[in-house]
Amino acid sequence: MATLLVRNATLMVTMDDQRREITDGGLFIRDGVIEQVAVTSQLPQQADEILNLHGYLIVPGLINTHHHFYQTLTRAVPAAQNVNLFNWLKTLYPIWAGLTPDDIYLSTQTALAELALSGCTTSSDHLYLFPNGSRLDDEIQAGKELGLRLHAARGSMSLGESKGGLPPDRVVEDEDAILNDSERLILAYHDPKPGAMIRIVLAPCSPFSVTADLMRQSAWLARRYGVLLHTHLAETQDEDEFCRTKFGYPPVEYMQTLEWIGNDVWFAHCVHINDQEIKLFSHHGCGVAHCPTSNMRLASGIAPVMRMTSAGVKVGLGVDGSASNDGSHMLEEVRQAMLLARVKAGIDGASFSGEQAPPLMSARQALEIATIGGAAVLGRNDLGSLEVGKCGDFFAVNLNRLELAGALQDPLAALVFCSPIKADFTVVGGKFIVKDGQLTTIDLPMLVQKHNQASRRLISNL
Ligand SMILES: [Zn+2]
Q1: For residue 48, cis peptide bond before it (omega within 30 degrees of 0)
Q2: How many Å lie between the centroid of ligand 1 and the Cα of residue 205?
């Protein structure tokens, strides 16, 4: 029985039902599960490992609900810097066609390393290209070695250009092969139990890259095994027009016709949705991965996040693919979510002059989305808050640092308002992934070197 005692934290944010913030707090974790959450004086004195966090802030581990790890290999590609989604994709698809199993492995480690250093303890990933023998197994292997919890989404594309889709034919797959491989992955890796490190998700890429039939078949397969469904939805105006022209419905209504509305589904983006669609999501329990940086980067628009959360929609946060962000820093994303919601509030308030201005998203609300919000989106009631019986997943930051100087009257708000910082400790299931600011499970300089080599090769192959 391995035990970890964390004590003397200057402030510990629990995100429990009462949203307790405990001064001089700590945790007692046994075999990866939280056994006590309390002020230090009430905690046990002994444990296999003791971490003294006087001067530190403890926060539940952040949960990333949307990403494409492989895109860390194609960040800031010159030709894709200043274009919108459809043109960005058309520029990058041919580069991505050169991905190899090794590239998937390396890029997974790079993305997860960045995430871990930004306080993330659980990430989903959406891999939808499998060129040159690449498999989701390559990502899962890399994830296991790095040590973050992973919800690996088996993505897919089947609607190539010749059939009216957006991707070139050479990067799409046969639909029977997609479904067979999806079932193989569920049987090989999906762990439905509390505390799971790996879960599989089925995730046809987007309305403009798969057929209606593949969407329906994927939903049927996912429900047979009790795994979640995920896709991109209502991201851009172009997508809205594509769906109306090709299928005769706007994106959300199209999902209804495919039986893709339910509490086992979460959508990335949902920028272009109206109040009626928000009500529909709330009623059926659909989740949303909000990706503010990506939406700004690709000029997609501003998702109505405050309207979604106040209507009771489950909302999590996603850094999105590293080619449309071009980073995987979860704390930075929390800050962007708060700031972008305020831009929207300003715009909406301006258009309703004379009435009361809409409320501003607070630092605590932004952090809620990134923790318990993300846990709800991924169907994880064992994650997202520091409570007895939940997984021992948290991160801690030293408050005595330049970026936070002058902001310590409210350390939690400082973490969101001030410049994004790196975690000093990131712990998953009681195990250190980051210790004293260093990753414990990989050789970071070596990884960066190999990653840059792979990136150069991919882009020069074009
Ligand atoms: Zn995406």
Answers
A1: no
A2: 8
Q: What SS3 string covers 118-169?
A: CCEEEEEEEECCCHHHCCHHHHHHHHHHHCCEEEEEEEECCCCHHHCCCCCH
How many other C-beta atoms are found inside a 10 Å radius of the C-beta of residue 166?
21
Give distance in angstroms: CA of 197 to centre of ligand 1: 22
Q: What is the largest CA-CA distance in the chain?
A: 68
Residue 25 half-sphere exposure toward CB, CA atoms < 13 A: 18
* Other residues' Cβ atoms within 10 Å of the Cβ of residue 354: 4
CA of 164 to the centre of ligand 1 (A): 21
Is the pTM of the predicted complex or chain greater than 0.90?
yes
Please give the distance, rounded to the nearest whole angstrom, from the Cα atom of residue 68 to the centre of ligand 1. Answer: 6
**Residue 409: strand, helix, or coil:** coil
Cα of 433 from ligand 1 centre, angstroms: 26
> What average pLDDT does range 16-35 have in this prediction?
98
Ligand 1 mean position to 153 CA, how many Å? 11
- In this prediction, residue 49 carries a pLDDT of 97
CA of 234 to the centre of ligand 1 (A): 12
**Ordered DSSP codes for 349-392:** HHHTTTSPPPPPPPHHHHHHIIIIIHHHHTT-TTSSS--TTSB-
Q: Which two tokens stand for residue 151?
A: 């919800």
Q: By percentage, how much of the chain surpasses pLDDT 90?
A: 92
Structure tokens at 352: 């309703």
